[in-house]
Design brief:
Blueprint (H helix, E strand, L loop, with lengths): L9 H9 L7 H12 L4 E4 L6 H12 L9 E4 L3 H14 L7 E4 L5 H9 L4 E4 L1 H10 L9 E5 L1 H6 L3 H9 L6 E6 L4 H10 L4 E4 L10 E7 L5 H9 L8 E4 L3 H13 L4 E4 L5 H12 L5 E4 L1 H4 L9 E4 L6 H8 L9 E7 L4 H11 L4 E2 L8 H20 L12
Parallel strand pairs: 1-6, 1-7, 2-4, 2-5, 3-4, 5-6, 8-13, 8-14, 9-11, 9-12, 10-11, 12-13
Helix pairs in contact: 2-3, 3-4, 6-8, 14-15
Length: 406
């Protein structure tokens, strides 16, 4: 089936073909006809990198009345980076149509955003906090909104945006279509859908494969002080040219690791929440242009990064939960391309990692780079586990000394 057969306008079909796409993805094939022909709300679940933005973006663009310069669609995203990505994608899909798409997010001066909104915008893409700020200031009028979209709804709820989302929802007209898209569908998302959506059509694509099937997954078990040497070995492998993201848990770790990599001769840069928005955008743009080959990032900074050519994702530290693992791994293997994901685990973390991968519904093989763990290291680790178990059960109390009787 082609995009033209889905019922899209000639302008949308031409824009899609200009981007080099001829066959719609599964989520696009299911959602686009529903949005074009029905009036129902939609809940869509599909794996990361499956083309969700075009799935809701193309029908919305076809529904925009260019002659009315007011906000007709509002798209909420969890992060600034994703807001920018969605905005760029919609602009590339509008073709020659005079449809104005604008993004609003924190970390940027609010003055230019106010002036842009006053000039008349058809589609606003933004983060909940900044959108609500504009509503409260009276600089964003949503009376004409016909489409209300939550993109990566699970991430927004994880980040604590539910109250903001509900406040924004109340500022929109009662009669509108609500669209909710997510890679995972936890109970919080389902409850939000039940509260604000009217008998939605539920579209589930690849529910049992939340991580792209094109991603080869491995784990490396190694003592912490060996991680860096093993990482440089992976980066230096000439058989697989590395272009990817190295995930760390903390901002400090991204800075330290990127400096060590640059000192070792690699083109690496850090991306974390401590950086100003202009600095983050410049860093990402250098990475997207391949001037930087390695992005060392935290999860928050890397959300919404959409670069189809990413070859590798490395978890330099073990993910905290299955959702975080899915999000990280989903940065590679996008749009049918091959990818590889490698996770470093320390001795003692294997049981936890197996639980994470089981919940994520994936199988991860042990890498040939895994090293034998020294016996004394394992013995020390076991001793620490026993001491931790003892403290958890008995607290800091020491065993009572038996009195000697005379």
């Amino acid at each position: 089936m082609s995009f033209r057969e889905l019922g899209l306008s000639s302008a949308s079909v031409e824009a899609v073909e200009r981007k080099g796409f001829s066959i719609p993805t599964d989520i696009q094939r299911e959602v686009i006809p529903l949005l074009l022909s029905a009036e129902s709300d939609i809940v869509g679940q599909s794996k990361t990198g499956s083309g969700k933005t075009a799935a809701f973006g193309l029908p919305i663009l076809d529904s925009i009345d260019e002659s009315i310069r007011e906000v007709q669609a509002l798209i909420l995203t969890p992060t600034r980076e994703l807001a920018i990505q969605v905005t760029d994608e919609l602009r590339s899909l509008r073709g020659k149509r005079r449809i104005y798409v604008y993004s609003v997010y924190g970390g940027q001066p609010i003055g230019p955003q106010i002036r842009a909104l006053e000039g008349g915008v058809h589609i606003v893409v933004g983060t909940p906090g900044r959108v609500l700020d504009h509503i409260n200031r009276g600089t964003l009028n949503l009376d004409g909104v016909r489409f209300f979209v939550l993109d990566e709804a699970d991430r927004m709820l994880d980040m604590g945006f539910q109250e903001d989302i509900e406040a924004i929802f109340r500022a929109t007209p009662k009669e509108k279509r609500v669209l909710m898209f997510s890679a995972t569908m936890p109970m919080d998302v389902l409850l939000l859908a039940k509260k604000y959506m009217r008998n939605p059509e539920v579209v589930i694509v690849s529910r049992d494969e939340l991580v792209p099937g094109e991603v080869e997954q491995e784990y490396i078990e190694a003592v912490p002080h060996r991680r860096f040497d093993l990482l440089t070995k992976i980066l230096s492998d000439e058989s697989n040219e590395f272009y990817g993201i190295v995930f760390c848990q903390t901002k400090a770790e991204t800075r330290e690791l990127s400096m060590r990599l640059r000192a070792a001769g690699f083109r690496a840069e850090a991306l974390n929440g401590d950086m100003s928005q202009p600095a983050r955008e410049k860093t990402f743009n250098r990475f997207k242009a391949r001037k930087t080959k390695i992005l060392v990032a935290t999860d928050v900074a890397a959300r919404g990064l959409d670069v189809p050519e990413i070859t590798h994702v490395i978890n330099y530290s073990i993910p905290m939960n299955p959702e975080q693992y899915i999000h990280r791994i989903g940065r590679t293997g996008r749009m049918g391309k091959k990818g590889k994901a490698i996770t470093f685990i320390a001795p003692g973390e294997l049981r936890r990692f197996r639980y994470i991968t089981k919940q994520a519904g994936v199988e991860v093989k042990k890498s040939e780079l895994s090293e034998g763990i020294p016996k004394e290291y394992r013995e020390r680790l076991r001793q620490e586990e026993l001491e931790g178990e003892y403290r958890g059960r008995w607290g800091s109390m020491k065993p009572r000394q038996r009195r000697r009787r005379y």
